[in-house]
Specification:
By secondary structure, the protein is α/β, with parallel strands linked by helices. The protein has a domain of about 220 residues: TIM Barrel (Alpha-Beta Barrel). About 45% of the residues lie in helices and about 10% in strands. The strands form two sheets. Strands 9-8-7-6-5-4-1-10 form an eight-stranded parallel β-sheet. Strands 2-3 form a two-stranded antiparallel sheet. Helix 8 links the parallel strand 8 and strand 9. The longest helix has 17 residues. The termini are far apart. The N terminus is likely disordered.
Length: about 325
């Protein structure tokens, strides 16, 4: 098992452990906090654009994020074959060069497939795995529990669960998350993309403090952190890693005014990068910045001309495009 790197930035937990809080009690080690970029997979002429991926990862390192998550939804994982999937992880690990964490998106609606991808991702150097709720086949909560329990038993990697009912048709119920956290020591985090601060409050109230919660929606990062979340798995940080990290770190470090200012400044970006289905708008944004070719794999297609104009105008509005 590869040990994740310690964060270089101040968080609420390590600030308290250094004497910034009112209690001298030891704080539990918390595996995944801060900003994780759900990084796109660049293509050129139908193939992986490996040089572009390397540049993207190095830009994330320079931007100060805590980690990246290749081959998730934003990485177009459903359109990659298994070998491509692992190749993207391998390239991301190499380009990150140990400077940030690489969590591989290796979830699936087949438990066997999720296990195979997770084991292969571990073999090429991933330090963790993002495990989306099984989609389309709509298992019961008992099935969801057994699925994640089987994946956890098959790998030593720490796992971040991913609940996104809008895409999967089911959520990972609060009770199921609690059960998995109790029964599976390597299940240590949840990416929450259900859009509800109430649910984050419910989760925080019943989960151990060492279990981390990350927002799955850029526009809800600050509201979620206000009720107990620990950061974000971000799409916007593909184009604004420094700015998203600064917002998250400002709140974690107690500078609410700075965090609110950054949220207000970049809210148009958080909103308009979802003007069409993700990741088409963020790929348009990266193409406008000259980072990648604006190429997706079917059934995804590039954004409309109208949406591209909106993305361009938004990048200019927030100072990311001249």
């Amino acid at each position: 098992m590869n040990c994740p790197l310690p964060s270089r930035r101040v968080t609420r937990e390590n600030a308290l452990s250094k004497g910034g809080g009112s209690s001298d009690a030891p704080r539990p080690f918390r595996m995944f906090t801060g900003t994780y970029t759900a990084i796109v997979t660049p293509f050129r002429n139908g193939q992986l654009d490996e040089p572009a991926l390397e540049r993207l990862v190095k830009a994330q390192v320079k931007g100060g994020v805590d980690g990246i998550i290749p081959v998730g939804t934003t990485g177009e994982s459903p359109t990659l074959d298994c070998d491509e999937h692992i190749r993207v992880v391998e390239l991301a690990v190499k380009a990150a060069a140990g400077k940030i964490k690489v969590l591989a998106g290796t979830g699936a609606n087949s438990t066997r497939e999720a296990i195979e991808l997770t084991q292969r991702a571990a073999a090429v150097g991933a330090v963790g795995s993002l495990q989306v709720a099984p989609y389309y086949n709509k298992p019961t909560q008992e099935g969801v529990y057994q699925h994640f329990k089987a994946v956890a038993a098959a790998t030593k990697l720490p796992l971040m669960l991913y609940s996104i009912p809008g895409r999967c048709g089911i959520e990972i119920a609060v009770e199921t998350v609690v059960r998995l956290a109790q029964d599976c020591p390597t299940i240590v985090s949840l990416k929450e993309a259900g859009g509800s601060c109430d649910r984050v409050s419910q989760l925080r109230a019943v989960l151990p403090r060492k279990f981390t919660l990350l927002s799955g929606d850029d526009s809800l990062t600050l509201p979620f952190m206000a009720v107990g979340a620990d950061g974000v798995v971000s799409v916007a940080s593909n184009v604004a890693p420094k700015q998203v990290s600064a917002m998250v770190n400002a709140f974690a470090g107690g500078d609410l005014a700075k965090a609110q200012k950054l949220h207000a400044q970049f809210y148009p970006l958080f909103k308009n990068l979802f003007v069409e289905s993700n990741p088409a708008p963020v790929k348009a944004a990266l193409a406008l910045q000259g980072a990648i070719a604006e190429e997706l794999r079917l059934p995804l297609v590039p954004v409309s001309a109208k949406s591209r104009e909106l993305v361009a105008a938004t990048l200019k509005q927030v100072g990311l495009l001249k």
